[in-house]
User: What shape does this take?
Amino acid sequence: MGRVQDKVVFITGAARGQGRAHALRLAEEGADIIGVDLCADIATNGYALATREDLDETVRQVEKLGRRMVARQADVREPGELKEAADAGAAELGRLDAVIAQAGICPLGNQDPASFLDAVAVDFNGVVHAVQAALPHLPDGGSVIATGSVAGLLPGGTDNPANGFGGMGYSWAKRALASFVHDLAVTLAPRSIRANAVHPTNTNTDMLNSDPMYRVFRPDLESPTREDALLAFPAMNAMPVGFVEPEDVAALVLFLVSDESRFMTGMQLRVDAGSYVKNRPQPPAF
Assistant: This one.
């Protein structure tokens, strides 16, 4: 018996990166998956997003582990699309026990005001829409997990003016998400449904391994490469690493989906190699 045996988990952004890592780790421990992804690019985002082939590969890997996955292309900015996916998945798999609002973009360096709104629409509205879609199916004792960001929580991080309106929107969304989870936890507590946020540091995904991110970490170079950025990534963290792996985050997500975390709610949990404590604002000295 796995730690989440026969639970069904709804995951947004499931085609690759952290979303795929969550799906596979949960499947390893006995869960079935409802997974959605946009499978298209967003114009203001400076790196390519996942494809339908990526989503199909997640399905293949889940099924290789002996579990089922219902996959749909759906846009987290459209609540109706998420509702349709959650309803169809719950009907096919028989239940829905948890939701992981993972889908996100980081349109750093974009000075188009639309990039601010796109980041908010995906990174915050998308979380609300995922919870709205899942909640009618969640049983008492279910779990809601939202993916935040350490960089988004730190003043002067992604909201640095040098990172454009897209960076500002990313930070606004992640801070709003953290506040939302606090109040959502109180709202859902009478049914023992817990709501928690997970805030990773740099994570080894396509978001980190992208030209916009390389430029953020190496502003001294005109056209930095991944090899250039690898030298700078560790500056974010207190531990001597440049990034964590998606599987490191998935280990925490597994715990939060499992009944082992049944009395943990309203938490802001960091998988960050000490990034937050290293960079947190310090109180004034008196």
